[in-house]
Amino acid sequence: MFELRPVLLCLIWWGSSSLNNVFGKSILNEFKFPITISLFQLLLMNVVLPILMPLFGARTYVVTENDVRRWVLPLAFLKLLASISSQLSILKVPLSYVHTVKALTPLFTVLLSRFVLDQHFHPTIYLSLVPVILGVAIASMTELSFDAIGLASALIATCTFSVQNIFSKKVMKAKMHALTLLLIVSRAAIVLLIPIWLFVEGPHVVWGDGWDKMDASPKLIFYELLGNAICNLLQSVAAFMFLSMVTPVTYSVANVTKRIVVIVSSMLFFRNPVTLWNVFGMTLASLGIVMYNFAKRREPPEEKATDKVASERDDEWV
Fold first, then answer.
1. What's the pTM?
2. Which candidate, 293, 306, 236, places its Cα nearest to that of 105?
3. What secondary structure does DSSP assign to 215-242, as a single string?
4. Most buried among 35, 98, 134, 279, by the most CB within 10 A?
5. Are 112 and 162 in contact, with CB atoms under 8 Å apart?
6. How far apart are CA 140 and CA 273, in angstroms?
7. Average pLDDT of span 67-82
8. pLDDT digits (tens, 9 = 90+) for 177-229
9. b/e per residue, 268-299, with b = 16+ CB within 10 A?
10. Spatial distance between the Cα atoms of 35 and 26, rounded to a whole number of angstroms
11. Phi/psi class of residue 271: alpha, beta or left (left: φ > 0; alpha: ψ in -120 to 50)?
12. CB 47 within 8 A of CB 187
């Protein structure tokens, strides 16, 4: 029987993700302070998540000193690194290219799981990663706005997201709710980020010497920062709700489609020049992700269970 709620949630997820990226790129074109954008996102998350948690049955969790050492600080550092490097990549290169590079997430997940956690995968998993690697390589070689710092930042963000997913999976095995984990990690991340922000970007933002070179007004920048932070939160919650209503295969396919929607919408909105080879590379990488997701579902049950969270979750999470 057809259900409307999952469809609406999926559309909200795609729309909020596209708007989040468009807002982020639009802000960074004028307001070149990626750490401030990350700080704004974390501030809103810390304010709104405690209100949303009871609606999703998420309980509070008392963090012990042992928890802080074992997983809170490591995950907070990873979240910080992933967020800042992601914003820096968006600042340096087109959104379409950033999300093409992020298609390498399964590659990093498989390599880390294999060599760090000693997990084993079916040969079809490794074969499915070949078109992903080739697609990203072709897109990189033909990217008209290529920037080495942008590529490096996107790779760091992608690798860090993969480590986050694997690390978060181990924490959530203790039946901790995803939103509870997100709030705990966000609180720790903002404590780590504030001193960095005060030292690197704070003086330029607060005392205004960074505003002189901007065409946009501070009021417009504030509204865009708020819109970006709201969409960032909304896409996380919508992804969580959607995953709870559908099968993992449906979620994986929707996730690939979401990335395509973000790429296409950013190309249309910002009118970035692309070549046919560039589009071919993006398409090949996206098809590789589809192949990877279906290969994951055909694994033997014991292998599939070991990496379920890492294969389902994307960069919307902790």
1. 0.85
2. 293
3. SS-HHHHHHHHHHHHHHHHHHHHHHHHH
4. 98
5. yes
6. 14
7. 93
8. 888 888 999 999 999 999 999 999 988 888 766 566 677 777 888 888 999 99
9. eeeebebeeebbebbbbbbbbbbbbbebbeeb
10. 15
11. left
12. no
Residue 44 contacts by C-beta under 8 Å, 6 or more apart in sequence? Answer: 226, 229, 230, 232, 233
- Tokens representing residue 214 in the block: 């901007």
CB < 8 Å & 24+ apart, contacts of 266-271:
266/18, 266/21, 266/22, 266/25, 266/94, 266/95, 266/96, 266/99, 267/94, 267/95, 267/96, 269/22, 270/22, 270/25, 270/94, 270/95
Q: Side chain identity at 94, as an amino acid letter?
A: P
DSSP secondary structure string, 154-212?
A: HHHHHHHHHHHHHHHHHHHTT---HHHHHHHHHHHHHHHHHHHHHHHTHHHHHSSTTTT
Residue whose tokens read 């379409």: 96
Helical axes 248-270 vs 4-30, angle rounded to 10°: 40
What tokens does 219 get?
A: 């009021």
